């Protein structure tokens, strides 16, 4: 079977998968959402990362012995930053996702002070870590990672979800190797849709292959000016097909941006740059990874910075009980 025939077969099979996945997603996301564990079920190991909306810690389930990544969000901070609706949506989506290239939800619970989301521990680390170490990826590895991101976006978009936060820091690499990103329409306060995800995908592909993003400037206003005018320069190592693909995705005019035209994602999957990529093999995890992180064990954290011990606040009464009553537990 030729390349075009393989691609057409993939389109048909993936479309069948998405339709079945949509039914599962809708049944799950609108159902009851009870607590499935409690904080005392887990042994806290070390803090893996911190951010605006909480911290992520490595933990071990005391009974089953399996390691997880636990996201801990303080209820007071969620209320202060007006992120309650967003947090509920995030948890429900994580719980409803069933896709090989998206991190799902294993356990969820709360206590008097915090909300806890327990997810698989993907100990290969962030793509950002490996990209920083390698300086840039060769195009074979770029295609391998890009193909997985494409299918993850297809899945989310089919479920009615727009991601809006694609960047190397938010892509995890498993043991099998499996603000510069703002789209112009967000900066210009225009209405947006799935187009913003494909723009950020173009930025990601550029950064993987170049080792730096297409748009950068110390002054935020100058950065925004470059983005809204799509001013960037290709490195000399970019192949002609790669340049063509990036050019067609990083289009300020959304009527010309690949990913959201009449053919949709087929403009990207069927592009010459992906000619050697077997999407079916990658989706079914049968493709040989061009890169595998060296992992010493399930609890190996070498690809994560150590932020020290886990320190949590306690309270004798339940904080914001009324606000979090929608968490049906």
From TrEMBL:
* UniProt keyword list: ATP-binding, Kinase, Nucleotide-binding, Serine/threonine-protein kinase, Transferase
Annotated GO CC locations: cAMP-dependent protein kinase complex; cytosol; nucleus
Citing just one GO molecular function, the answer is:
cAMP-dependent protein kinase activity
Task: Output the SMART domains linked to this UniProt entry.
Answer: S_TK_X, S_TKc
The record's section on InterPro entries has: AGC-kinase_C, Kinase-like_dom_sf, Prot_kinase_dom, Protein_kinase_ATP_BS, Ser/Thr_kinase_AS
Positions contributing to ATP binding: 71
| One Pfam family, short name | Pkinase
Query: What are the AGC-kinase C-terminal domain coordinates in residue numbering?
Result: 275-329
Domain of life where this protein originates: Eukaryota
Substrates-to-products reaction catalysed: L-seryl-[protein] + ATP = O-phospho-L-seryl-[protein] + ADP + H(+); L-threonyl-[protein] + ATP = O-phospho-L-threonyl-[protein] + ADP + H(+)
- What Enzyme Commission number(s) does the record list for this chain? 2.7.11.11
Protein kinase domain residues are 42-274
Q: EC top class, in one word?
A: transferase
What family does the Swiss-Prot or TrEMBL record give for this protein?
A: Belongs to the protein kinase superfamily.
Q: State the name under which the record lists this protein.
A: cAMP-dependent protein kinase
Q: Species name for this entry?
A: Exocentrus adspersus
């Amino acid at each position: 079977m030729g390349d075009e025939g393989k691609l057409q077969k993939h389109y048909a099979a993936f479309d069948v998968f998405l339709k079945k996945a949509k039914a599962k997603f809708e049944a799950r996301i609108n159902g009851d959402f009870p607590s499935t564990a409690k904080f005392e079920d887990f042994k806290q190991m070390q803090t893996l990362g911190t951010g605006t909306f909480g911290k992520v810690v490595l933990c071990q389930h005391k009974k089953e012995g399996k390691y997880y990544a636990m996201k801990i969000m303080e209820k007071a901070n969620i209320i202060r930053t007006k992120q309650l609706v967003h947090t509920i949506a995030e948890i429900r989506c994580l719980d409803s996702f069933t896709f090989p290239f998206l991190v799902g939800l294993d356990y969820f619970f709360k206590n008097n002070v915090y909300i806890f989301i327990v997810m698989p521990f993907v100990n290969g680390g962030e793509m950002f870590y490996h990209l920083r170490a390698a300086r840039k990826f060769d195009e074979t590895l770029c295609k391998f990672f890009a193909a997985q991101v494409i299918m993850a976006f297809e899945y989310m978009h089919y479920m009615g979800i727009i991601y809006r936060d694609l960047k190397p820091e938010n892509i995890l690499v498993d043991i099998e190797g499996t603000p510069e990103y703002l789209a112009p329409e967000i900066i210009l306060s225009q209405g947006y849709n799935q187009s913003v995800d494909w723009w950020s995908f173009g930025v990601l592909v550029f950064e993987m292959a170049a080792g730096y993003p297409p748009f950068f400037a110390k002054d935020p206003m100058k950065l925004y000016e470059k983005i809204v005018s799509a001013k960037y320069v290709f490195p000399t190592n970019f192949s002609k097909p790669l340049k063509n693909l990036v050019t067609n995705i990083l289009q300020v005019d959304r009527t010309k941006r690949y990913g959201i035209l009449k053919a949709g994602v087929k403009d990207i999957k069927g592009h010459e740059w992906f000619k050697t990529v077997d999407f079916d093999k990658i989706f079914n995890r049968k493709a040989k990874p061009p890169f595998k992180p060296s992992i010493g064990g399930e609890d190996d954290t070498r690809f994560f910075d150590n932020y020290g011990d886990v320190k949590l606040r306690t309270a004798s009464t339940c904080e914001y009980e009324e606000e979090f009553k929608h968490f049906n537990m």
